[in-house]
Every structure is written in structure tokens, then in C-alpha cells.
Design goal:
Elements lengths: L8 E7 L5 H16 L3 E5 L5 H12 L5 H26 L2 E5 L2 H11 L4 H12 L6 E6 L2 H7 L12 H17 L4 E5 L4 H16 L8
Parallel strand pairs: 1-3, 1-4, 2-3, 4-5
Helix pairs in contact: 1-8, 2-3, 3-5, 4-5, 4-7
Length: about 220
């Protein structure tokens, strides 16, 4: 079942580390709560459920795993996340905003790890039963700039190297170009307020919302 067949709104945020996804997803959710009156559910991948927290620890902070195992761990988290949290919230009519979704696997495991993109896409689609967001916001930033913004010890993916992150960024941009009706590509080097205004305008258009006069 697609997001369009459910009564809620489903929005994902994508981009490299340090792009500002947490800040912008929070701001967008607060704004959507005001203009729609709907409950907003913020979540993330991996780690949006109790099982997801266990898988997050394994895939980002545990021992080395090979690329295929990594892809399967992400797919496991995503399948459980959608079945137990995302889809029920959409069926209630909530707004679901997730920090990363299946496009991250295409970018990181296919683009960064260079696994076959068709296989990763098929795995991700199967795990989610084809559920896609109404809108996906890509906060695009030079990986070197994003890395300098991080203030915590790097995880396994953050330590993967400059070339890995360049491939990941390119995979994101190519994927966004293939589906402009769903994707919103935003330059993440701007100010927080300017980025937020651009995101909410583009997301409102994709959700068919009328912007308040003061916006």
C-alpha cells in the first residue's frame, strides 16, 4: 500500500551526516502540527523501535560486518519499523516524519558500498511492501563540510572515507533527479531559517496544503 492510499502524511529526510536532518525534521513537524492539526510522529532509521535500537547498535557501532550483511540489517530494521510504527500511524491519519528511509539504503549500500542498485531497491521495496513517502527532503551538502559539523565520535559509516561519502552523495542526487515529484533537494549550506522556509513550501505543495498568509 502506497502512502497515497493512507490517510496520514509520510515524509522522509535524507542526506549525508551533518546535513541538519534532525533540526529540519523537527521544525517541519512543528509547523505541520500547527497548520494541519494532526499528530506528528518523529522517528528514524535505524532505531525507531526497541528492536531498531538493537539493530542500530549492531550496524553502526558493533563489529565490522560485510556490505550484504549490513544491507540485510537495515532491511530488517525497516520492515519492522514500517509494520509496527509507520503504517499504523499513517492509518490513524498522523504525520510521520522519519530521519532516513529506504533511499538511504540505495545511497549508502548501493552507492557507497557499490552493491547492485537493483538488488538493494528490490530488498527495500519488499521490506516495506512498497510504501514510499509523499515527500522526501534531501539536504544536500559537501561531505567534507558535513563531517566538520559532527560533534560526536564517528560511527562505522561516518568512518567509511571521503570517496565512500562522495559516491553516496552522487547516488542521492541521481535518485532525486529520477523522481522530482517526490524529492525536494535543498542546499544544506544555508541558514536554518532559510532552509526551513524552502522545505515547508515544497512539502506543502506536494501534500496539497495551503500555506497560511503569514508563512
Amino acid at each position: 500500500m502506497s502512502a497515497d492510499e493512507q490517510s496520514g502524511y509520510f515524509i522522509s529526510f535524507e542526506g549525508g551526516d551533518g546535513a541538519g536532518k534532525s533540526t529540519q525534521s523537527r521544525l517541519l513537524g512543528e509547523w505541520l502540527e500547527q497548520v494541519t492539526g494532526r499528530r506528528v510522529v518523529w522517528t528514524r532509521e535505524p532505531g525507531g523501535t526497541e528492536l531498531g535500537l538493537v539493530l542500530r547498535q549492531a550496524v553502526l557501532h558493533g563489529d565490522h560486518v560485510d556490505p550484504r550483511t549490513e544491507a540485510l540489517l537495515y532491511a530488517t530494521d525497516r520492515a519492522h519499523h514500517v509494520a509496527s510504527l509507520v503504517r499504523p500511524a499513517l492509518e490513524r491519519g498522523d504525520v510521520v516524519i522519519t530521519d532516513r528511509y529506504l533511499d538511504s539504503s540505495i545511497a549508502y549500500q548501493a552507492g557507497g558500498r557499490t552493491l547492485p542498485v537493483e538488488e538493494i531497491e528490490q530488498l527495500s521495496t519488499w521490506a516495506t511492501e512498497g510504501l514510499l513517502p509523499h515527500a522526501t527532503v534531501l539536504l544536500d551538502i559537501d561531505p567534507l563540510v558535513g563531517t566538520r559539523r559532527l560533534d560526536a565520535a564517528p560511527d562505522r559509516l561516518e568512518r567509511a572515507g571521503d570517496e565512500f561519502h562522495r559516491r553516496t552523495r552522487q547516488a542521492y542526487l541521481e535518485r532525486a533527479a529520477q523522481d522530482p515529484a517526490r524529492w525536494v533537494v535543498v542546499d544544506a549550506s544555508g541558514t536554518v531559517d532559510a532552509i526551513h522556509r524552502e522545505i515547508r513550501s515544497a512539502v506543502a505543495e506536494r501534500l496539497g496544503l495551503t500555506l497560511p498568509a503569514e508563512a
